């Protein structure tokens, strides 16, 4: 169990003995404390590379707090020195839906902050440990309950069709991404020393599923993993996100896919993909899913596919979902995969970045004008609604039935890692379009999500919730 703990800096001279008691009580349960109070852990975050990457001490501190809360099971705040300004820690905890215990000798902040995840307590010298232990016991029980419910989930269980979210089938690769920072992108015979290594779920389709789920949709992931530790960890993380994993198959004879990502100081990257189990996805996965739809076990509002799997499977899936009248969104990635142009008319919305659009049309896409020309070329080949993304420059939309592309400028931010930008854009676009049927609003939210994602390192951690996008917007 991981607990994030914090207290106002200015109050430490007065309340340090109580702060120490709280930390000691948390650690007495075997829980891990993530906190600015743990000086070695906290000061280590102010390494030169982090300061250079994020710009100043305040941003490093905020990122430490954000990631600490995001990865914790619960948050405890000692707020005796506050006069209701409990701070962004409580806000972030509520955004990330983490249980919060706010302790104060002066006031019960639960009377001022009304939220199911927020618990305020006025403590004394006598009851401090008891309040902390009672809260931790509840958190532990919640974790066990969640774990037990996930273990007893029935395979392919029906979904409540009256819910307000949209059900989206996502087809593509499932990988473990290995991220490391390098001083520059290596060339032939180069040897570089990297810093840091993160192992997190990845694959463009996997990122889309996580992105859609965090934006309030219900994602059904279709794919294959290996019978290994990587595969188990991915399934566990998907379930924690709320993604339906009933149609992820396991192959006992080939490992889970892996991706090695090098990110340099400019936030540029190189990606090496070892597809492994992803190459074994077969028609049976698709037919089992379609059979559940045909039997009305659940309904699907959209089919989201990438080109990561073998072309035969992608083609089969697009044709079958199209035959059932289900809306299809296609992320034409990676650009090394070819897609038959005969599939274009079956795809409702076709999305490509500048590299993919260049490969599909022969027009070198570098800016708004060339992106528009590329979109028109795709239209001439039978494509319907077309989106061309241009990284930090923004994106271009050519709507079905229209002849003039519309340009949506990018949002200027300080980029840390561009890896998840496109996946965040597409997930937000699809979620907003399914909710509103407004392409322009969907493009704007997609741009915002892409801009948010580049301010974070990695792909999985960079994908935003709606609350984070609203927070980022303001």
**Distance N terminus to C terminus?**
33 Å
- Percentage of residues in strands: 15-25%
Overall pLDDT, averaged?
Answer: 86
Q: Within the largest sheet, what's the order of strands?
A: 10-9-6-13-14-15-16-17-18
User: Count the strands?
Assistant: 18
- The helix tally amounts to 15
Kindly report the CATH topology of the largest domain: UDP-N-acetylmuramoyl-L-alanine:D-glutamate ligase
CATH superfamily of the largest domain: Ribokinase
CATH class of the largest domain: Alpha Beta
Helical/strand content category: alpha/beta
Binned, the helix content reads: 25-40%
- Low-confidence sequence ranges: 150-163
Largest sheet: 9 strands, mixed
CATH architecture title of the largest domain? 3-Layer(aba) Sandwich
Overall shape: globular
The radius of gyration over CA amounts to 24 Å
Please indicate the count of domains.
Answer: 2
